[in-house]
Amino acid sequence: MIDAAKIIQILECTIVIEQKKSKCDYALPTAPTDDQIAEIETKVNEIIRMHLPVTIEFLSQEEAKGTFNLDKLPDDASETLRIVKVGEYDACPCIGLHVENTSEIGVFKILSYDYNEGTLRLRFKLQEA
Description:
The chain is an alpha+beta fold. It has 2 domains: about 1-50 and about 105-129, Threonyl-trna Synthetase, Chain A, domain 2 (Threonyl-tRNA Synthetase, Chain A, domain 2, 2-Layer Sandwich); about 55-100, Replication Terminator Protein, Chain A, domain 2, CATH 3.30.54. The chain has helices spanning about 5, 35-50, 60-65, and strands spanning about 15, 20-25, 55-60, 80-85, 90-95, 105-115, 120-125. Strands 1-2-7-6 form a 4-stranded antiparallel β-sheet, with helices on one face. A hairpin with a 2-residue loop joins strand 6 and strand 7. The protein is globular, with a radius of gyration of 15 Å. The termini are far apart.
């Protein structure tokens, strides 16, 4: 059985955040059930409500190599990477804009999902609380 808390902690994922609708792709060995999808939404909202601080630190590519997957960095990426940390919960190299703490995000709502050939795609929206 897939644990929803583990799904949202999987490191091998692709996330695209847009104003109207966003998506996350996760590599999973089996398709989650409808109940597990609902549990994911609940767990994500619990984490958002924790008011986790969002902080930034800088690492060289060499320092980041052992911790982060740098395969998708462009060839001309700077030697110094910006690492965005969400409390002690998550960290990743990122160039995007970020909130100061998770409570600013609002409510996470899964709009739809599908599972195909080992990939779970969640389509979601962030709404005002």
